Amino acid sequence: MVSEARARAGRQARLRVRLTCTGVVQGVGFRPAVYRHAVAWGLSGFVANSPEGAVIEVEGEAELVEGFLRTLSAALPPRARLERVQREELPLRGEEGFSVVESLPGRRKQALVPPDLALCRDCRQDMEDPKNRRFHYPFTTCTNCGPRYSLAISLPYDRSRTAMACFPLCPDCQREYTDPQDRRFHAEPLCCPACGPKLTLLAPDGRLLAEEQSALEKARELLAAGKILAVKGLGGFQLACRADREGPVRRLRQRKNRQAKPFALMVRGLSVARELVALGAAEEALLTSPEAPIVLAPRRRQARVAPAVALGLADLGVMLPTTPLHVELFRDAPYEALVMTSGNASDEP
What we know:
alpha+beta; DHBP synthase; 3 domains; six-stranded mixed beta sheet; five-stranded mixed beta sheet; 10 helices; acylphosphatase activity
C-alpha cells in the first residue's frame, strides 16, 4: 500500500501537517515508531516531545501525508496511547529527511509519564547470551521495558531530565541510541556495564562489602542463608528473604511491625508460580504482561511456603521478576521464591 501510494504521489500537490498528540506518548517508544513510519512513507519533517505530549510535522506529497496519518495509530508501539490528535496545516518548508529532534520548550500541560515496565523478552535474551555485552547485567533495558516513572525528574521525558543524566553514554550505547533500526533508539534509560550504574552491596552500617558480580554472588549467599536483604529497585527499596523458611519471614514481620497482613512472593519463573498456586490462562497472562502485577491465586497444598507468609489465608500473592536485578538474584540460587515487600514502614504505601 505504501509503495503504490508513493508511485502515484509524484503527480500530486505537496502538503505539510502538524500533529499535536496528547496521551501516553513519552517513554513508550513513540518517537522511534513515528520516525520509522514517516521514513516508510517517504516523508520529511520531525517528531519531538512537547509540553502537550508530542508534536509531529510531516511534509510530502498529499496522498503520502494522508496515508501516513490514516495508518499512524496502527504503527505505534503497544504501550503508547493516543487520547487526542490536533491537526494543523502549515506552509511548506522543503527540508529533506525525517528526524527526532530535541524536546520543544514550555511548561508541562498534558504530557504523561508511563509506569515502569517489566523486563522484556529481548532484553532477557541479551542477559542470557555470553557473547552479549549485557550478559548478566542487572540494569539492562530498551525502548520496550524498564524504568520510566521512577527515573523521571521533570518533563518532557528526555535523558537529561531523568536520573540517568549523570551516566554519559559510551560509544556503543550512543550508536544504539542514534540508530533508528535499533530497539534502543532513543531509549532514555539506556546503559551497559561500560557506562551505566554499578551494583554495590553494603552492610547495615554502610560499609562496602562487594561490587558488581561479587555483590550479586554475596547477596544470593545471604538470602540463601536466611538473611533479610534490602534491594533498591524501581520506585524505592524492597525487603527480601526466603519464602520457604519460617524464621526469616517471622523476623521480617517483626522488623516491619507487620503482624498479620500477607506478604507477596516473587518467584523464579512461571513454572514455579504454577507449583505454588493454581493459575488459569488469564492469571498467567497477567503475570507475564509488561505491567507484571502481583496476582492473587489459591495456594496449592504442597506449596513450599512458610506459614508466616500469609497467616490463615488460602491464597497467595505471586509475581515474576520485574527487573534485571531481580532476575540476577534468582540466577543459580538454591531458593525458588522470595518474600518481596516494600521497604516502607508498616501501613505506608
